[in-house]
Amino acid sequence: MVENKNNLRYVEEDEIDLKELFNTILKYKYKIALFVSFITILTFIYTLSIPNLYKSEIVLSPQESQKSVGGGLSSLASLAGVSLGGGSSKDPFIMMKTTLNDYLFNEKVIKKYNLIEKLETKKNLVFALNIDSIYNMFNSKSQKTEDKRSEKEKIFSTINSIKSILSIASDKKSSLIIIKAELVDRYMAKELVDIYLTEIINKIKLEDMKEIDAQIKYYNKELSSTYDVSLKEQLSKSLSGLYQKKVFSQANDYYFVSKVVDSRVSYIKEKTKPKRALILIVSFMTSIFLAIFIVFFLEFLRSDKENETKNS
After folding, report:
1. Where on the phi/psi map is residue 129: left (φ > 0), alpha (ψ -120 to 50), or beta?
2. What's the CA gap between 268 and 253, in Å, rounded?
3. Which of 73, 99, 170, 172 could form a disulfide with 93 if both were Cys (CB 3.0 to 4.6 A apart)?
4. How deeply is 72 buried, as exposed, middle or buried, from its count of CB atoms within 10 A (0-12, 13-18, 19+)?
């Protein structure tokens, strides 16, 4: 019987606590509603100030790697510090990603295409309800501040911006390579993807051609100095393979990859971000929980002060 009485007392205390909590919420319901409305309205204004983000991407397929043209001469060439096989033995995705992350490469591309000005000049922006006044209000001053930076600071900032805008990924199953740009200017997103694809391919191709030329020079030197008939035959075959590779590389616009899906300008309704409805819902729910917490905290402080006053 004693245990039953204790259990009933605990249940009654819990009911009293829940009633007090509910009464506290009802007591401050207008303030809670005002706080939630204020936060939601601010969030709505914020979402209106964010321009739509658009995506442009190119899907590439790596060409089938060719066999090394050196054959049994690889050990001979290695003694002279010459690497056989050119770019055919290298992973296209790794080469492209490494080139994209190269600071000096990015610096040259930025200067060549005047990307500092193009990325800083905000054009073709699309807003919800076509309201751009809020965005212009908060970004007019920041534009003036950016103009005071030195060229090195601008280049560094632009490279960091490009890293957040441009990405390269590889599908392990299909081996397809995807170069993607996400930007508020849907036309610039396409232009940026096209620029970097061309420049990355050109840089890798140039480095490979230098390597092939070095191999050709080495083989010609060995061919003119040797009297071994079998070695001359192997050197001639290797030279023939290198010349073939050099000729074939000129036939493909993108060297060791081919386009599967070309880049395009996104349709105006094909935005990737922001998810305005989701932002509003999260803000609304968070503001409710925050308002209730603040109300309970203030009520706790008030009751604590009343207890101190009574005790004194």
Report:
1. left
2. 30
3. 170
4. exposed
**54-261 CATH fold:** Bacterial polysaccharide co-polymerase-like (3.30.1890)
> Which tokens is 253 given?
């616009």
pTM over 0.70: yes
Considering only CA atoms, which of 246, 266, 198, 278 is closest in space to residue 66? Answer: 246
pLDDT tens-digit readout, 203-233: 998 888 888 888 888 888 877 887 777 877 8
Residue spans of the domains in the chain: they are 2-49+274-300, 54-261
Kindly state the tokens that stand for 203. Answer: 């840089």
Of 64 and 27, the one with more pLDDT:
27
Of the candidates 43, 196, 199, the one whose C-alpha atom is nearest the C-alpha of residue 128 is 43
Tell whether the torsion through CA atoms of 151, 155, 160 and 161 is positive or negative.
positive
Residues in a beta bridge with 178: 59, 169
Please report, rounded to a whole number, the percentage of residues in the chain having pLDDT higher than 90.
38
The model's pLDDT over 264-279, given as tens digits with 9 standing for 90+, comes to 999 999 999 999 999 9
SS3 116: helix
* 57 class by beta-carbon count within 10 Å (0-12 exposed, 13-18 middle, 19+ buried): buried
Instruction: Report residue 301 as tokens.
Output: 């402080």
